[in-house]
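hi! just following up on the protien thing from before. the input was this:
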Amino acid sequence: MKQVVQNYKSGELAVLDVPVPGCKPGGVLVRTAYSLISTGTELMKVSEAGMSMLGKARSRPDQVAKVMQSVATNGVPATYRKVMGKLDSYTPLGYSLCGVVEQVGAGIEDVKVGDLVACAGNEHALHAELNWVPKNLYTPLPDGLAPRHAAFGTVGSIAMQGVRQGEPQLGEVALVIGLGLIGQLVAQLLTASGVRVVGADPDPARCELAERLGAAACGDPASPAVESAVAELTGGHGVDQVYLAAGGGTNQPVELAARLSRDRGRVVDIGKCRLDLPWNAYYEKELDVRFSRSYGPGRYDPEYELDGRDYPIGYVRWTERRNLACFLDLLARGRVDVEPLVSHVAAFDDAVETYQRLKDGDLKAVAVLFRYPEQAVEAEAPEVAVPPVNVKRNPARAVRTPVRLAFVGAGNYATSMLLPHLTGRDGVELSTVVTTTALSAANAKRKFGFAEATTDLDAVLGDKSIDAVFVVTRHSSHAELTRKALLAGKSVFVEKPLALTEDELAGVLAAVEESGNDRLQVGFNRRFAPLLQEARKRFGARTGPASLRYLVNAGRLQHGSWYLQQGTEGSRFAGEGGHFIDTASWLLDADPVSVYAVASSGNEDLQVVLRYLDASTATLSYVTTGASGFPKETLDLVADGKVLRLDDFVRASVYGQKKWVSSRLPKARDKGQNAELASFIKAVRTGGPMPVPLESLVATTAATLAVQASLAGGVPVTLARA
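and the predicted 3d structure came back as:
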């Protein structure tokens, strides 16, 4: 088998062929699927190995002390031979991985061959194709957790142990100094615990990433921004806890901790930073300085780690293994998101080159994964189900005029993009607006002329005079509100996305089947845009496969946007991407059969490839790092010697035997909302078919969900139809 090793004397890195470890009793043999490079701890070891002997001595004074003791005991010649022999040997790298159990040792009953496990330990979870891992250093994966995410288990446990040492309480404010891999995870864990987080790091990209994942504010520790944020969040009292997750030789983190802590605050050292405590500052505030020892209780105890002797839960609630299992559970439930931290995934065979690029600074990364060639876990292509539409449709009847509408939600999109097209429209009555707060309902009633305003959703769903319900709330509530409205017999217009999970999508279709009510429309408005409709007509029918390219220059979100709350509201693409998948599928007149997605650092810029049954492909480039002055949406469709071009709903052209170019629109871009609403109202009023078939809405939603599944697995995802 192959393993990554380093010679500490010469600094040489290599991928060696070494014997396969035996499967001893009390543990399991694991074939690695993904292993994680700790860009802090491991790069420090790699950098130290490249130093001169004097540099090595200066960086490890603890080891120098041991050498001096050996000299005093054994003499210089013997000590020299011992030290040189140890330095001039290969040592392993790595301590966090996920893999498949290949063999089970005697005494192990909690896993079997073929199970996925996350593994920890700098002697047992190495960058190697196979590892023997003792019982207390592995834990089975929860259902649905991607192996590449589970590879973060060890570093997640380190961050979790640090947070436990800080004893955070609901409503407190914490400062995290250093927003590398551990700092990012600490910030997320604190946020999940109800603590508001301020981050400090000189790297603006890391600050932006932490804010996107839930931190209240982040900035350069040398700038006044961090101090101002702390003062604002704490009323000038200072933070309750400080987590030192920074490395390096500067004493700035320790000094910053003292300056921004409240009286009797807690300072937790997680990283390996300089700790020259300024005595007066720490004494005057009576600061409580604590250390976090790696993964948790059990670390460095051979009876726990090697012999498998657990600590009684009544005395030690959170051990190494329990911390590992807890972190995996948080990942599986979406409380912590590690995908945005993945800066790079490298083939295991490229390990030496990857380390060198990290060391030289060519590869800027928060977290890097090694992907191994023989992954039993990914032998079968993953699938996302496209549920069948099974419904005995109740006859749709025409309704009296006017059509009476209720709005659930009256946020920015509803008030700017939908309600202006409905206010004053002939044959439409804005009956009731439902919001979670009384004042927002009253504002919507006054502004758009609703007859009633309420916070009682059940009363609206029970009102037989209401013909259609618009669901325009946050993404996490769409599926459940849609389900309730369908069961109440209403026609439903729900803004995208229809669902954030496969279970939510199945729940909506179960409501359709139970009620016989399939009167559903999702707000995919671009297919209704007049300019795109005309361009499609001019392009005409096609006979051969098509190639479609769709560039979405989405831009940055403002700080504080609820779109950034990925733990509850899904990723940004999950919320918006259905628009572009629906447009592509409508232009190609088909539903996709597979999805492959790759992401850049931070999982913001995506490349999504959709494949269709007739060999057509659509490539969606969803980017946030482009120039704000460049058009948001540009699209090209190529087939049969023809090209359709759309420029941000301002201009369109078709090149073929004849050339057609639209005139520049004199008014604002029309992305189809008005025509979409007109079609929906007509369908409700006449009892005719919905503007978009339900099967198409389901297929687009499943394809959007498959993007996240593909990102998690790193492979194409098949859209499986029953």
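Residues 155-291 form a domain with the Rossmann fold fold (CATH 3.40.50.720).
Residues 376-380 have pLDDT under 50 and may be disordered.
cheers
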